[in-house]
Specification:
The chain has about 170 residues and is mostly helical. The protein has 9 helices and 2 strands; from the N terminus they run αααααβαβααα.
Length: about 170
């Protein structure tokens, strides 16, 4: 979404002032992964680098609780053989401790998060929320959906969820 909706991070929308932030672990993963750097080369452009500085803020007490909860959530996903990364677990654990919503389409992240009562927003649900809050127009939703389909980068339930949210088939 970062390339299609820009600026995106830290920008409040809707009467409830929703906002998206990056988890510091995702930034670490981007910094360490040549595969991600190649796939998302545009992230190194200055406008996107500065946007990625909008990291979720965590108080010291919460950071300690995140560390204590990490192993418990890690063991759960390991028992289920979900194959999640440490970055994934930190995102789930942070959402769990801070009682915030986690945006993801990764099914194993969703299953793990839901096991701990973490609220999830899938990409389409997030786009619908942004549209309902007049942050984006429906044309932008369809543009993003068309791109995700073109790149074959969408989950299996994508078409069903689009129909559920919009009452029609995706573009």
């Amino acid at each position: 979404l970062a390339k299609s909706i820009h600026p995106l991070l830290g920008k409040p929308f809707g009467k409830d002032k929703y906002a998206l932030y990056l988890h510091k672990e995702i930034q670490y993963e981007l910094d360490r992964s040549p595969r991600l750097q190649t796939s998302f080369f545009w992230l190194e452009q200055e406008e996107y680098k500065s946007e990625r500085k909008k990291i979720i803020s965590v108080k010291k007490k919460d950071a300690e609780e995140i560390e204590l909860s990490y192993d418990y959530i890690w063991e759960h996903q390991k028992e289920k053989d979900y194959g999640l990364s440490r970055e994934d677990i930190y995102c789930i654990t942070t959402a769990y401790v801070l009682k915030i919503t986690l945006a993801t389409d990764d099914n194993n992240i969703i299953l793990t998060a839901e096991a701990f009562g973490v609220k999830i927003l899938r990409t389409l649900e997030l786009l619908k929320l942004m549209e309902d809050c007049d942050f984006i127009l429906h044309e932008k939703v369809d543009e993003i959906v068309s791109y995700l389909k073109y790149t074959n980068d969408y989950p299996l339930s994508f078409n069903r969820l689009y129909r559920s949210l919009y009452g029609k088939a995706p573009p």
